[in-house]
Design brief:
Blueprint lengths: L12 H15 L4 E7 L5 H14 L3 E6 L10 H7 L11 H10 L10 H16 L4 E6 L6 H13 L5 E8 L12 E3 L5 H12 L5 H10 L4 H8 L4 H6 L13 H13 L4 H12 L5 H10 L7 H5 L3 E3 L3 E3 L2 H10 L2 H14 L6 H11 L5 H16 L3 H13 L4 H17 L3 H12 L5 H18 L5 H14 L4 H16 L8 H10 L8 H15 L2 H17 L5 H20 L4 H18 L5 H14 L3 H18 L6 H10 L2 H18 L2 H17 L3 H13 L6 H14 L3 H15 L5 H12 L4 H18 L2 H17 L3 H18 L2 H13 L17 H11 L4 H8 L3 H15 L7 H12 L27
Parallel strand pairs: 1-4, 1-5, 2-3, 3-4
Antiparallel strand pairs: 6-7
Length: 956
């Protein structure tokens, strides 16, 4: 499809220079991405042809895809077209990527692949192809790609960095205004007056009266295609004096509508068989000459495309190709409905039902003039095949059409419910609502009514995380229970989860009401013992008290950590349970070990199945573990990766961990900015739980900065918030701030609540929080013993930040009780630990206290790895662990080339020249970070403060 003949271009010098520079960089091994945007006919396609021709001249492999409006509902159709030249290398990909791509393209059966695992497979495939020659990916009319192909290519474009792969897209506006919105973009406008005049005169073969020429140019807004097409076939009088109003209806409307109308006028002069042939081609976007011939035979016409070529509507290069997508649009829309149905009927008959059953079903659906149960059933089967390939958007459209064609109203309702669920899964809540409304007009079984109620709640919760979703979920759960469906318990857990995120415990729409309903329901087992035990534990906490609930949770932990997940569906169900499980273990069991275990597994499972929607929140939870381990650098790497993946996949970023990290680091300005953004988002979305978390987060921040009045007010808002989570942590902050503000009455009231919350939790974290909070209100030997106990308990729980903080509080207490030598010992430990973590506010607070004891504190030594970015640090750590570039790439959704590019930068920054030197270089950095003689403080050898519980590992 490539040619070395450059297209004739008038003007467009900046755009040509941009493409030339792109190809130079590509040949140098650098990745580039460019999106050209503009209205129809503005010259985007010609610029792509210029890029293709220039690529052929400089020995670059070109692969192309063309978006076609009629093909938008077939999943992976465009991606398959683009990858076809490289499928011979499919077996060289890692197994999960190879299998995902084979299932997506319909050449193998299997669980539906995550679309972003498919994206990683495409990235790997293009990277492999680029190892022999640079690869240029050219995509025209990207706004008409099927949704999953567009999302996949956008993902690939965002992950390119050090591969010899370039991608150039053309997107028509306004139809594609949301497509590829954040990629590097060049907007193509009309030609300037001089270039437009030159183009127009070259088309008519001579000079025009300047006034006529300028009028044409102005009316066409410099649109090249409009200038060329409106000069075609005009009489000498029209060219000399302007259009004949008696023969031409005017030039009102958009340029696109004028062009399409002009093409439609030319169709009217063509012979009937030629118009039918063009209609077949317009309805069948694949361009299969054999299929075109068979369909023409079925309609008993002799294919004759020559008149259409003479009219300037098509090109013939061994196959029929429309000169512009507007020609295809004009052909299809000018035909009357019966003509279109006849053509689709012929195409359905001509399509092999074994080789391409989905396209055959789609043509049969378009041919149907009314309800047709056989066609509807075939569409439903096609929808199931689309789902198995990961084409959720296509599944939704196929089910929607199946419902429209279903004569039986009961079956129509069932299919409409399924279509609504699929539209919601495809992130189309408006279309989901439309189908749900249509389903409600049909009689539904009790199970379908429950599914519909659950869907309504999902849509409401997705739009605004208010507590209005919980009653709908409870209604759905009750209906599932009545139908004896295993979905009942899962839906009760969803109702509780919705109230948790909405931030309500009490009241008719609160978590406690949902828990009461769940325990009284008698719902059948869900099929997952872990899920059932989790529901029992969470419901017990909310209804029977913390002690009985925590016992049940302990039983669920082992299953959640070890339950065998045999299918992708089972894994995805586990990942949906993980957030409510984690919130419960964090805030009621006070169990950092359980938090680590579940977050580590969530990250691993999400990576293993390529569930990039579930991976960012899993990474955020894992990052939270490392904040409490005092490993802020590792936490930052995880948060950065989560944000990167969320941005690449079009999901909103998660604010919790970034807020907590900023608070512990004492970054007041950064925290204030993130808090303001998060608060605005929480108010807009009704996510009250985030507002409750602010109390704890600002309590940590202001206590670290010794701004105790502000900490007291912030923590008060956290403990007064009617939320499921963060109340206990806010109480800890409130007690410290109240004692520092001279309000022991407030501190004692909060201590009573804290002791009630921690009593049932048999964990070092809970015991340490209780002991330290009691110490702040105690005196003499009792306080001394409580501080020592808190240090020991926090160490048992692995909560390193709280170990350091207790050393600080104990040292402050010792200094005020005139025991400077022992105070120095604990303050020095606190300072070194906080300084090693880069907890700047707490570190400075410890430094001031230490200086007050008479000890001189030297300036810190700069870390040797301070120049590494978060991603470089993460890659370096994985490489030091012995992972290959390919494995690291699979872990982080990068190509091996990009991994190698990052490692070269790491070697330079660390002053090493090989992978073998990484462990020692990074180990040196860890020694610096741990506080060992890094800050000039002289102290005797002692056991290092606990950093991470033994037996735990860093989640990847």
């Amino acid at each position: 499809m490539t040619t070395s003949t450059l297209p004739d271009l008038v003007g467009r010098h900046p755009e040509r220079a941009l493409l030339d520079e792109l190809l130079v960089s590509l040949r140098a091994g650098e990745s580039r991405v460019r999106v050209f945007r503009g209205e129809a006919g503005i010259g985007k396609s010609v610029l792509l042809e210029y890029a293709v021709a220039r690529a052929a001249q400089v020995t670059v492999t070109v692969t192309r895809a063309q978006g076609v409006e009629a093909d938008m509902e077939l999943p992976y159709a465009s991606l398959h077209q683009l990858c076809a030249p490289f499928l011979g290398q499919l077996d060289t990909l890692p197994g999960p990527q190879r299998d995902a791509l084979r299932v997506a393209f319909g050449v193998a059966a299997g669980d539906p692949p995550d679309r972003f695992l498919v994206g990683l497979a495409v990235l790997s495939l293009l990277t492999r192809a680029s190892e022999t020659r640079p690869v240029l990916v050219v995509v025209d009319d990207a706004q008409w790609l099927d949704q999953v192909s567009l999302q996949t290519l956008e993902f690939v474009a965002r992950r390119l960095l050090a591969e010899a792969v370039a991608m150039v897209f053309a997107v028509r506006d306004p139809e594609g205004k949301d497509a590829l919105a954040d990629l590097p973009t060049t907007r193509i406008g009309g030609l300037d007056a001089a270039a437009a005049a030159e183009l127009l005169e070259s088309a008519v073969g001579g000079r025009l009266d300047k006034r006529v020429r300028d009028r044409f140019v102005a009316e066409m807004h410099g649109n090249p295609l409009a200038l060329l097409e409106f000069s075609r076939g005009r009489t000498a009088a029209e060219l000399a004096y302007g259009p004949d109003s008696s023969a031409y209806p005017g030039v009102e409307g958009t340029v696109s509508s004028r062009l399409e109308r002009d093409f439609a006028e030319r169709l009217g002069s063509l012979p009937g068989p030629t118009r039918t042939l063009l209609l077949i081609a317009a309805a069948e976007p694949v361009g299969d000459a054999g299929l075109l011939t068979r369909a023409a035979a079925a309609l008993e016409i002799t294919p004759d495309a020559a008149p259409a070529k003479s009219a300037g509507l098509i090109d013939l290069h061994g196959f029929l190709r429309f000169r512009h997508p507007l020609v295809r649009s004009a052909v299809y829309h000018q035909a009357d409905p019966e003509e279109r149905r006849a053509v689709h009927r012929a195409l359905a008959a001509a399509t092999d039902p074994a080789l391409d059953p989905d396209r055959r079903a789609w043509h049969a659906a378009q041919a149907a003039a009314g309800p047709d149960d056989d066609v509807a059933a075939e569409l439903e089967r096609a929808a199931d095949r689309a789902r198995q390939r990961g084409g959720i958007a296509a599944e939704a459209v196929l089910l929607e059409r199946a419902a429209q064609l279903t004569p039986d109203i009961w079956a129509r309702g069932r299919r409409a419910v399924a279509a609504a669920e699929a539209h919601f899964s495809a992130a189309s809540p408006d279309r989901a609502t439309e189908q749900a409304t249509l389903a409600e007009l049909c009689p539904l079984s009790s199970l379908d009514r429950a599914r519909l109620a659950r869907l309504r709640a999902w849509i409401l919760f997705a739009r605004s995380r208010s507590d209005e979703a919980a009653p709908l979920l409870l209604e759905a759960a009750a209906q599932f229970t009545a139908a004896k469906s295993p979905l009942a318990r899962e839906t009760y857990l969803e109702a509780i989860s919705a109230t948790i995120f909405a931030g309500r415990v009490h009241g008719p729409a609160g978590a406690r009401a949902a828990a009461v309903a769940a325990r009284a329901s008698g719902a059948p087992p869900s099929g997952s013992e872990a899920a059932d035990l989790l529901l029992e534990g969470v419901a017990a906490i909310l209804t029977s008290g913390y002690e009985s609930g925590v016992v049940a949770l302990r039983g669920a932990l082992g299953l959640l950590a070890q339950e065998e997940l045999r299918t992708r569906e089972a894994t995805m169900r586990w990942l949906l349970l993980a957030p409510v499980a984690l919130e419960t273990f964090i805030h009621y069991a006070w169990d950092l070990h359980a938090w680590d275990t579940l977050a580590t597994r969530a990250v691993r499972l999400a990576r293993d199945v390529g569930a990039l929607g579930a991976l960012p929140p899993a990474l955020i939870y894992a990052g939270g573990v490392h904040i409490h381990y005092g490993d802020f650098a590792e936490a930052a790497r995880m948060i950065d990766e989560a944000d990167t993946i969320a941005a690449a996949t079009g999901h909103a970023t998660h604010k919790y961990a970034a807020l907590v990290l900023a608070a512990w680091r004492g970054e007041a300005d950064a925290a204030a900015r993130i808090i303001d953004e998060a608060r605005a988002s929480a108010v807009e979305r009704g996510e009250v739980s985030l507002l409750g978390a602010m109390g704890y987060i600002q309590g940590v921040l202001f206590n670290g900065l010794a701004r105790y009045e502000e900490a007291l007010e912030a923590a008060r808002s956290g403990i007064e918030h009617d939320g499921f989570n963060f109340t206990g942590l806010s109480l800890v902050e409130h007690i410290e701030a109240a004692t520092r503000c001279g309000r022991p009455d407030l501190a004692r009231a909060s201590l009573a609540r804290l002791l009630e919350l921690t009593r049932a939790a048999d964990s070092g974290w809970a015991a340490g929080a209780a002991a330290r909070s009691r110490a702040l209100l105690a005196d003499g030997d009792e306080a001394d013993a409580l501080y020592r106990s808190a240090i020991e308990e926090f160490g048992r729980g692995g909560v390193t930040v709280e170990v350091a903080r207790t050393h600080l509080l104990y040292g402050e207490w010792l200094r005020r009780n005139h025991r400077p030598a022992l105070a120095r010992d604990h303050l020095r430990t606190a300072y070194e630990m906080f300084d090693g973590m880069r907890a700047e506010a707490f570190s400075e607070r410890a430094r001031r206290e230490l200086t007050a004891t008479g000890e001189h504190v030297k300036a810190r030594v700069t870390k040797s790895t301070s120049a590494l970015t978060a991603q470089e640090s993460q890659i370096a750590t994985l490489a030091a662990d012995g992972m290959t570039n390919a494995r690291i790439g699979a872990e982080l959704f990068l190509s091996p080339h990009t991994v190698e590019w990052h490692l070269r930068k790491v070697y330079t920054k660390l002053g090493i020249n090989s992978r073998r030197a990484l462990p020692d270089a990074l180990a040196g950095s860890v020694a610096l970070n741990s506080g060992e003689r890094r800050d000039g403080v002289t102290r005797p050898d002692r056991a290092k403060p606990p950093t991470r519980p033994s037996g735990t590992s860093r989640p990847r």
